[in-house]
Amino acid sequence: MGLFKKLRNKYVIWHANRVKFPEFTPSIIVRKKAAFSGRVQKVGFRLEIYCIARRMKITGWVRNLKDGSVEAELQGEQSHIDFLINCMRSLKRASVKKMAIIDLPIREDEESFTIVE
């Protein structure tokens, strides 16, 4: 891994760990697929989603797509997923131009959040 990427990843982890969570009202468990397009690759976007999702106990995965977008499946409390999506949309070092979100069926067997290479 190059020096720049190591430094960027350290910064992304530091930044994601500093995100302040509001007091959430308990909400229903949902699963959503979110696709983000714009300048979302090579800026630590996947790592940021991963770090925040793990802190919030959201399960699922995130991956880069060949077209330059980032796709994620997120499962957890509706309020947590909405907060995470809004965090990513307002991320300063990325530029989300388009976002598509669809509802998916819950996966009972999922226990963690991963980055898919």
Automatic annotation (TrEMBL):
<protein>
    <recommendedName>
        <fullName>acylphosphatase</fullName>
        <ecNumber>3.6.1.7</ecNumber>
    </recommendedName>
</protein>
<dbReference type="GO" id="GO:0003998">
    <property type="term" value="F:acylphosphatase activity"/>
</dbReference>
<feature type="active site">
    <location>
        <position position="46"/>
    </location>
</feature>
<comment type="similarity">
    <text>Belongs to the acylphosphatase family.</text>
</comment>
<dbReference type="InterPro" id="IPR001792">
    <property type="entry name" value="Acylphosphatase-like_dom"/>
</dbReference>
<feature type="domain" description="Acylphosphatase-like">
    <location>
        <begin position="31"/>
        <end position="117"/>
    </location>
</feature>
<dbReference type="InterPro" id="IPR017968">
    <property type="entry name" value="Acylphosphatase_CS"/>
</dbReference>
<dbReference type="InterPro" id="IPR036046">
    <property type="entry name" value="Acylphosphatase-like_dom_sf"/>
</dbReference>
<feature type="active site">
    <location>
        <position position="64"/>
    </location>
</feature>
<dbReference type="InterPro" id="IPR020456">
    <property type="entry name" value="Acylphosphatase"/>
</dbReference>
<dbReference type="Pfam" id="PF00708">
    <property type="entry name" value="Acylphosphatase"/>
</dbReference>
<keyword id="KW-0378">Hydrolase</keyword>
